[in-house]
Prior knowledge:
The chain is α+β, with helices and mostly antiparallel strands.
Amino acid sequence: MTQPLPKYDVFQAIADPTRRQLLQLLTDQEMPVTVISGHFPMSRTAVSKHLRVLAEAGLVKERKVGRETRYRLDPEPLRELKRWLAYYERYWENKLSMLKHYVESDESDETTS
């Protein structure tokens, strides 16, 4: 039996700045939604919706403690993002090298003039 595909992928989940802030907030500790929502200028319901997207992408894990649900970061899915970015990093490095060469050659031209 195959598992259903997640509703959101990592890229969709981190596209929103609020969700990126949520991930950062949950980096070092597990928190209930009541505490999390105190860090944001929005309703608890709105925060819960953002947490749901993160959970569906696998970026946060939920744990029931009594009547309370606590959330914590699960960084594992971010490895997919890291691999994707690593592929394109070579293009950035190439462009930076070209820029460095251009700037340094322009500076040497000015000093010899």
